[in-house]
Amino acid sequence: MRQNADTLVIDTVEKLAALITEKRASRKVYHEEHQRITNEVSRLQEAVNKSKNNYEQALEHYKSSKTKYEDQYLKGKPGRKLDELKERYQKACKKLHQVHNDYVLLLCEAADYERDFRTVLLPGLLEYQERVQEDMIDKWRSLLSEVCELTDTTQGRYAQLQAEVASAVSAISPKTEYSSFSETNKSSPPDPVSFEFCNELLGDGVGSLQAGQLAVDSLTVDSLRLRLNDIEHSLREVTTQLREKQNLLNQHETEVVNIKTNSLQDSNIGSRLAVLKRASDVLRRELNELRCRESWLQHQHRLIHDPLAALGCEEAPQPWEATQVNGDSHQRSDSLSLKSRSAAIKELLRKPFNRSKTSDSQASTPPTPTRANTEERATEPDQNSLLEMTPGGQAEVPQAVNGVQELTYDPDRCLEDEPWFHGVLPREEVVRLLVNEGDYLVRETTRNDEQQIVLSVCWGSHKHFIVQTTPEGHYRFEGPAFPTIQELILHQHGCGLPVTNKSGAILRNPIFRERWELNNDDVELRDKIGRGNFGDVYKARLRDSGLEVAVKTCRVTLPDEQKKKFLQEGRILKQYDHPNIVKFIGICVQKQPIMIVMELVPGGSLLSFVRNHKGQLTVKQMMGMCLDTASGMAYLESKNCIHRDLAARNCLVGHRSIVKISDFGMSREEEEYIVSDGMKQIPIKWTAPEALNFGKYTSLCDVWSYGVLCWEIFSSGEVPYQGYSNTKAREMIDSGYRMLAPPNTPEEMYQLMLKCWQYEPENRPHFSDIYAAVDSIYAPL
Ligand code: ADP
């Protein structure tokens, strides 16, 4: 008994102390682990709130910078301030898109974690704890058995007590012991937290941003690619850790099997088995967590990868922000209805630059009489005759051979010289040139200040592929890489395979530059002669023919939308051929700045001309100017073109004071054109009441402006309704006031002006009648 008592006091108590220490340690581990995985939910909650705040701030900043930029733009004041505001706006837009994507990805991560926290991680930890506790209960039971044995006195009076103790001890079952403990002590799991996109953020819509969906556009595509790289890197790390831990677990399991099958008898075996069991439990828990992490990462990977893969090497779509201000009629593009968008596209398709179509339509239009072609000016050498030579002379590329000619590669020819390279021709113009399946061309575009070469192909719809650059500096799409873009295109044309498998687009007919697409280097800019809305106007010389021309430049920093609007003037002008309409020669889009080349009209604007010649012009000369303008306008009317900004400042004076109508920036080719809002830049004092009141434009509105223009001529460039504000002038007109005749205005001419200013458009004369009326006053003079 003494020996037993000694063992009990020394060994058993020591084991008991160790078991208590172990129990405490396991409790600590449990609490720490529990804390760790629970804290992650709180961390994610905080991160989501923070990300939402960032979103709100970015949205606020974006909206304010957009408003500032639009206000400045609508004030029509180009210059540094506008450029700065534009840059700020673009930055804010980019930031918003990035913050949007961060928010979407974080929500995805948080929702995944939260789900697994409740369904995998927390149950996993509890299961682990259960196993650890069961082990310890087992040990505790052995200890109690030991105590039982050691205290067995086998004396009768103890026998009953001893039997009770022994049976109680043997009744201890680790499984039920702990489960009854955990049953009475368990706490209910936390309520699920929902991580969902806050729809209020987007409210009435922010462009193309969609709740819970990544924005994949030219602003975000680069950052998304970087993010995808990061995720792929993390996935690789997780896969490696999974593999290593699984291997270790397998080793432990094999060792346990070996020990058991070989029934190795060793005093350390028991403790070794216990160590292996504990280590395996830990590994299983860690594997569980890693698998969750792997699935979260895979989810995020899919979210980013799928839209990027769908894009392939196609150009990322322009974000809606690129069209923030619609130059046309100064409307905001976000307010443009789908219908008017498609109408605008149709308009683009309907009115090609195509020369042959234009000349056909011109041939079918009866010639409008002009002072120049009916009178003494008929013999005057008009610059227009020279112009006939220039466009063809300028273009280096053959015409009418699109698609039928075999492409050849000349290593000495640079990309810009390739006939199918169209420089910075805007995407809309490009789309208009690609008509048949397989039509293609190559162009340049700028994204995030980086120049990219784009292959545009008509295949079903219009597809735009960015030429990819390999690390060696070669060029490719999905197939092989080539040292030059020319060789790549030649290969793609010759091999007959699709540019990308997804698009199926095959290159069949290279579309060559049209002859009005001049090279920027063909034009030698000389003196600055004016300043337009989009940029400076220069006197210039065409290198080949030596012809002096006027060149309107478009500031490089203007948004794409404005550049398109700038070119629109060229598209409209190109179709017209009339001595009283300034002549279009070509556009230069091989590189920036894009330019419109036109006939040089040396006398400057009609407004400054009449002001500078105040008191020197005869009535006949002034009537001649009215006749020129009427002739040009009758021509435009016959073409269904509404000028919308007819005024002395927008006409030019050429040789022998011939007047040429210019500045077609606001023109529309339609019988009737309705502007729904954004009338800010309207020249109120020149505009007819129905256009001001209802936004309704027809050629009869131009007739009203023509009356004001004639008044400007006879008043030597006075300001109409002098001394009255725009608003006051509008009120006066609505209440029936009309300007008086300037001194020396022939009475019939003033009567004609009054007819032009009839309040109801249907009571005004058409330009064909006006021409006849003005001619009948002019002829006898
Ligand atoms: P925008 O349409 O961009 O406002 P404008 O057509 O008003 O530009 O041109 C600005 C100025 O440039 C005109 O007032 C005129 O002095 C000069 N200018 C424009 N076109 C010509 C031209 N074809 N020949 C001579 N001068 C021109």
UniProtKB/TrEMBL annotation:
<dbReference type="InterPro" id="IPR017441">
    <property type="entry name" value="Protein_kinase_ATP_BS"/>
</dbReference>
<keyword id="KW-0175">Coiled coil</keyword>
<dbReference type="InterPro" id="IPR016250">
    <property type="entry name" value="Tyr-prot_kinase_Fes/Fps"/>
</dbReference>
<dbReference type="InterPro" id="IPR001245">
    <property type="entry name" value="Ser-Thr/Tyr_kinase_cat_dom"/>
</dbReference>
<dbReference type="InterPro" id="IPR011009">
    <property type="entry name" value="Kinase-like_dom_sf"/>
</dbReference>
<keyword id="KW-0829">Tyrosine-protein kinase</keyword>
<dbReference type="InterPro" id="IPR031160">
    <property type="entry name" value="F_BAR_dom"/>
</dbReference>
<keyword id="KW-0547">Nucleotide-binding</keyword>
<keyword id="KW-0808">Transferase</keyword>
<comment type="similarity">
    <text>Belongs to the protein kinase superfamily. Tyr protein kinase family. Fes/fps subfamily.</text>
</comment>
<feature type="domain" description="Protein kinase">
    <location>
        <begin position="523"/>
        <end position="778"/>
    </location>
</feature>
<feature type="binding site">
    <location>
        <position position="552"/>
    </location>
    <ligand>
        <name>ATP</name>
    </ligand>
</feature>
<dbReference type="InterPro" id="IPR000980">
    <property type="entry name" value="SH2"/>
</dbReference>
<dbReference type="InterPro" id="IPR036860">
    <property type="entry name" value="SH2_dom_sf"/>
</dbReference>
<dbReference type="InterPro" id="IPR050198">
    <property type="entry name" value="Non-receptor_tyrosine_kinases"/>
</dbReference>
<dbReference type="GO" id="GO:0004715">
    <property type="term" value="F:non-membrane spanning protein tyrosine kinase activity"/>
</dbReference>
<keyword id="KW-0597">Phosphoprotein</keyword>
<dbReference type="InterPro" id="IPR027267">
    <property type="entry name" value="AH/BAR_dom_sf"/>
</dbReference>
<dbReference type="Pfam" id="PF00017">
    <property type="entry name" value="SH2"/>
</dbReference>
<keyword id="KW-0727">SH2 domain</keyword>
<dbReference type="InterPro" id="IPR035849">
    <property type="entry name" value="Fes/Fps/Fer_SH2"/>
</dbReference>
<keyword id="KW-0067">ATP-binding</keyword>
<feature type="domain" description="SH2">
    <location>
        <begin position="420"/>
        <end position="511"/>
    </location>
</feature>
<feature type="domain" description="F-BAR">
    <location>
        <begin position="1"/>
        <end position="177"/>
    </location>
</feature>
<dbReference type="InterPro" id="IPR008266">
    <property type="entry name" value="Tyr_kinase_AS"/>
</dbReference>
<feature type="active site" description="Proton acceptor">
    <location>
        <position position="645"/>
    </location>
</feature>
<dbReference type="GO" id="GO:0005524">
    <property type="term" value="F:ATP binding"/>
</dbReference>
<feature type="region of interest" description="Disordered">
    <location>
        <begin position="349"/>
        <end position="390"/>
    </location>
</feature>
<protein>
    <recommendedName>
        <fullName>Tyrosine-protein kinase</fullName>
        <ecNumber>2.7.10.2</ecNumber>
    </recommendedName>
</protein>
<feature type="binding site">
    <location>
        <begin position="529"/>
        <end position="537"/>
    </location>
    <ligand>
        <name>ATP</name>
    </ligand>
</feature>
<dbReference type="GO" id="GO:0002009">
    <property type="term" value="P:morphogenesis of an epithelium"/>
</dbReference>
<feature type="coiled-coil region">
    <location>
        <begin position="27"/>
        <end position="102"/>
    </location>
</feature>
<dbReference type="InterPro" id="IPR020635">
    <property type="entry name" value="Tyr_kinase_cat_dom"/>
</dbReference>
<dbReference type="Pfam" id="PF07714">
    <property type="entry name" value="PK_Tyr_Ser-Thr"/>
</dbReference>
<feature type="coiled-coil region">
    <location>
        <begin position="221"/>
        <end position="293"/>
    </location>
</feature>
<dbReference type="InterPro" id="IPR000719">
    <property type="entry name" value="Prot_kinase_dom"/>
</dbReference>
<feature type="compositionally biased region" description="Polar residues">
    <location>
        <begin position="355"/>
        <end position="365"/>
    </location>
</feature>
<keyword id="KW-0418">Kinase</keyword>
